[in-house]
Amino acid sequence: MAVTAKALFFDVFGTLVDWRNSIACEAETALKPRGIALDWPAFADAWRGEYQGALEEVRAGRMPFCKLDVLHRRNLEITLGRFGVGTLGEDEKRDLNLAWHRLDAWPDVPGGLARLKRKHWLAPVSNGNISLMVDLARRNNFPWDAILGAEIAGDYKPKPRVYLAAAAAFDLKPQDCMMVAAHSNDLAAAAALGLRTAHLARPNEHGPGRGESAPSIQVDYAVKGLDELAEKLGV
Fold it and tell me: Phi and psi at residue 92, in whole multiples of 5°?
């Protein structure tokens, strides 16, 4: 029996956008003209590697909620120091931090979202702040009906309030919503609250063969791309 949902909620980093190659390219564009030579994918990995630790500071209550842009900037300072880059001015750091607003989508995403929108309400439920989500949507033609997630809930996934606040924003019960993500832990947290789940394989998220090619938990759907999800949902 087909599982139905009125609203589809999407993780963004890794699920819809290729953060690793995008950040590596942005870092090279910003730093190489200054005579800085780095392993650009390693720089992207290191910057992203600070992500969960920074979120946990907020989730655990050790620091007040703040936008992901603020956490990314803090993490950029750490990463620049680790790679011995100490020559950037404030404006250059600010622009490099905005690289997260300029990430490119995986190839199946814009068309797949447009197809899914014919039948479903669509929204990101991301840890990214609203301005970041707007910039990614405009860059990649994401046809959102709303932008939900961390700022709406005042917390970060996988805290329950993030998923529940998204459902409430659409006046829906959790079971009328489906979380779509490339990360099993995100889906497990959503499923525990009654949301439907779809795992979207991104086997190269962290580099070749370094991503989830299949879920590690039971999900309603496991797909290789958004067109496959649309087919399963009868769109």
Answer: -70, -40
